[in-house]
# Entry
Amino acid sequence: MFCGIISTNCAVRGVYKNMKCPFCAYAESKVVDSRHAEEGATIRRRRECLECKKRFTTYEIMERLPLIVVKRDGSRQTFDKQKLINGMLRACEKRPVPLLELTNVADEIEQELQNSLEREIKTTDIGEMIMNGLKSLDEVAYVRFASVYRQFRDINSFMDELNRLLKDE
Ligand SMILES: [Zn+2]
# Structure
């Protein structure tokens, strides 16, 4: 059963509170299946009413609000995935990391940010996400990136990070 188009943030998962069951008008339903339609702009979801257990389908339009990046000095700019990739490329200079892996990391970060309800993200948070991504790809690239992002004050804090990394293994 088609219940109309609503607007929702794609982060909304699990129990959804704003859509009434078309059969009994109960307010809460759970998502039993979702898939993207129209190249990701719309999500088709099968829902199950928590009251009468009947299932229905919704088509939800994902919000594509711009993501705003807040820099250390408080200035703001719109999120630019290419900048993430460029930053990783610098860290991966002369390292055997395929570009595709880096764009995958950038795609995952963008998706995660889009899924969050926050529209403003600190550059330091993005830096942490990139570090997590690089860590599994190439440890040299990871340490290079971390040294820029964590702004190591001196060689000791750099060594601390390096030791922490080695201990994690
Ligand atoms: Zn119902």
About this structure: Residues 1-14 have pLDDT under 50 and may be disordered. Strands lie at 2-8, 15-16, 29-37, 42-49, 55-62, 68-70, 76-78, 120-122. The chain has five helices and eight strands.
